[in-house]
Amino acid sequence: MYEVEPMKNIKFGATGVEEILQNVAFILSSAVMSCPLDREFGWKTGLDDPIQIRKVKIVHEVTEAVARFEPRAIIAAVEVEGDGLQGKLVPRAKVRINDESI
Hints:
This protein is α+β, with helices and mostly antiparallel strands.
């Protein structure tokens, strides 16, 4: 099992498990409509929900986005950290790699 947080740096030329984990990190850091050539890529960040409801929605959105855009990774858990009152909720995912895909 691997723990993944939103992407901070890109390693060009990553392959295998490292590539899959990097792709998941990129998904975690991408809001829908933020990628110019693929406006559907990422997860819906949403606004104006109570904090606890927003956290549950983030778990759902991240799980759906990873399943859609990086099916080689299987989400085991998503944790949402941060301060909703400050407007910053950050998802972190625990993933397994589908061994058949590598």
